[in-house]
Amino acid sequence: SKPYLIAPSILSADFAKLGEEVERVLASGADVIHFDVMDNHYVPNLTFGSMICKALRDYGIEAPIDVHLMVSPVDSMIEQFLEAGASIITFHPEASSHIDRSLQLIKDGGAECGLVLNPATPLHYLDYVMDKVDQILLMSVNPGYGGQSFIEGTLEKVRQVRQRIITSGREIRLEVDGGIKASNIRAIAEAGADMFVAGSAIFNQEDYKAAIDAMRTELAL
Ligand code: DX5
Ligand code: ZN
């Protein structure tokens, strides 16, 4: 398996032709499709729900879909996304009243589960779930919008979470989301991340393959 996963965020895709955009970014070398769900309640923006995920599956998209829930409450959305064909579902612990229950709901539905921590959210949310999570997502911007700048303090947090993963002895993916581009991806990988979300750095380019190749070149150095 590839050591590093690149997960383009369709938040920056052209929604008027979403199926084609997803096909094109997969043909350009994307490993996973990152699917940003915003509810205008937990975050101050509104995107798309499970019907769009289902539509991509019905259109023929077979790649893993990584659903990042920026919604509160979370459990009803988890159920809908399990039905809609999500592969991985992550949520923000502050948005769930019963974190263990929400994680278990995802696992019982046959998807991989994880928590998302905002830039200032403490790591202690991970304390009692390291035996359960398949993935940990660290936000390197405040959630709600694409195209923001990477918050440098995230690098130290990535190092700390990588240590926790090593201590756990489990294979847990460490994903980082926000402001990632070819010029900073290597430093993020060196800090311990192995899965990289990129929205504007891919979809705002003419050539998606060139954008992804530039990131892979940095990761291979
Ligand atoms: C922000 C989203 C991110 C965003 C990343 O709330 O979770 O996935 O789309 O976009 P860029 O790569 O443009 O920062
Ligand atoms: Zn995201």
TrEMBL record:
Binding residues for a divalent metal cation: H34, D36, H68, D177
One Gene Ontology cellular component: cytoplasm
Function comment: Catalyzes the reversible epimerization of D-ribulose 5-phosphate to D-xylulose 5-phosphate.
Protein name from the UniProt record: Ribulose-phosphate 3-epimerase
Record-level GO BP terms: pentose catabolic process; pentose-phosphate shunt
Catalytic reactions on record: D-ribulose 5-phosphate = D-xylulose 5-phosphate
Annotated transmembrane regions: none
Its EC number(s): 5.1.3.1
Top EC class of this enzyme: isomerase
NCBIfam families: PRK05581.1-4, rpe
Superkingdom assignment: Bacteria
Lineage of source species: Bacteria, Pseudomonadati, Pseudomonadota, Gammaproteobacteria, Moraxellales
Keyword Isomerase: yes
Family annotation (Pfam families): Ribul_P_3_epim (PF00834)
Cofactor: Mn(2+); Co(2+); Fe(2+); Zn(2+)
GO molecular function: D-ribulose-phosphate 3-epimerase activity; metal ion binding
Residues at which substrate binds: S9, H68, G144, Y145, G146, G147, D177, G178, G179, G199, S200
Sequence similarity: Belongs to the ribulose-phosphate 3-epimerase family.
